[in-house]
User: Fold this.
Amino acid sequence: MSPSLQNRGACAYCGREMTRGWMARHLRTCEKRLAAQTEADRTRRRKQTLYHLQVEDAWSSYYWLQLEMRGEATLERLDSYLRDIWLECCGHLSQFEIGGVYYTQIMDDGLDFRDEKGMDVPVGELFTPGMEIPYEYDFGTTTELLIKVMDQRVGRPTTSHPIVLMARNNFEPPSCMECDKPATQLCNECMYEREDRRGELCDEHAEEHEHEDYLLPIVNSPRVGQCGYAGPAEPPY
Ligand SMILES: [Zn+2]
Ligand SMILES: [Zn+2]
Ligand SMILES: [Zn+2]
Ligand SMILES: [Zn+2]
Assistant:
């Protein structure tokens, strides 16, 4: 798939639309967000370090998320959030790489060829602003993400959840390879066979397409077209 470079998204607090880089900056000064923080300070939620994370597709600037995460929440929470919003297809393994250590689903297979730990670690013990954390989902057909720790603040969380979605890229479906209408399905067989690596199809052309067993829905996720990923690419909360 060849998504356009259009990568704007809307601020969840004030609704303003902008590109990824502007959004990361905007969130520091968004008045509606600051008001939400003041509001949160009146709650009894535990005061802690909160991290502003930018999650992006390692290979394209098209897909991105801006999150705020509680320092007391574990890497496992972040892993499950990323699976829900972007990745989960068949329960593959995943890993974060931080300071030469791989945080992953530990299996006691007796093979200690690298430094592995479980994901049950509060991110507050690991994250510092400026850190860039490579993340992989599925070690076969891998989706690679990069998690950037943009900022931290001390305060009370603005919601009752460990992670808050502050912004994500808008979704502009690519155009159908047959007719240029917005595509809804991707043909894995065409992507594999065709020289131009295209496989996008609109509803109409998907209907009459010869490889009906290879069609997967196109949704707002960098995992589209990989393994059996079928979305829905919605946040869990
Ligand atoms: Zn805003
Ligand atoms: Zn899979
Ligand atoms: Zn079409
Ligand atoms: Zn096809």
